[in-house]
Fold this sequence. Notes:
This protein is 33% helix and 16% strand. The chain is an alpha/beta fold. It has a domain at 72-204: Glutaredoxin, CATH 3.40.30.10. β6 and β7 form a beta hairpin. The termini are far apart.
Amino acid sequence: MHWSASGTSDRNAGGARREGRGLAGAGDDGIRAGMGLLDLLGGGAPGIGVGDPAPDFALPDPSGRTVRLGDYRGRKAVVLYFYPKDDTPGCRAEAQAFRDEIKVFFGLEATIVGVSNGSVKAKADFKRKYSLNFRLLADENREVAKAYGALGLLGLTPRRVTFVIGKDGRIRRIFASVMPISHLDAAKEALFKLREEEEHAAAKALPAAP
């Protein structure tokens, strides 16, 4: 899968290429060089793309409960976002942005799940300190981040990347950006589009009027 320089996937569910937003003022050579550096540091394009099944996982939340991605299949869409570290400025801003618009996601029949490789205790402290109203999961051995191609610098911590997963368990959008708040907007945009597609499919399935 090829990624645009903005960090968003440029492959749609059918595998076709689509235009991405490139780096301002950067030519193709500059973009390739930048992405090559990311690959070297462990933050290059993942092996999964839009339209692929989302890799299943089971991780503990701050209460010690094991949360499985598969538990949401057929019931809710999932906004799965990887973030570098608990209670750092960018990760705090991103988490608070999702927290403050949680009702929008409820209305779109979606749940939010944040993942990083901090401990369960770090997740519990982060969640309690900022009254976060969604799940944070501890990927302490980085296996889930690795499965999603979300490892960052030298493979030590996740980079900031969000996967929007449909109720069918397939990835519908991949968005990577160092700008924390942009992930909120990207997730909402993808979910509104999903709802439109579902409504259109439901309308087509209705029997024709006599």
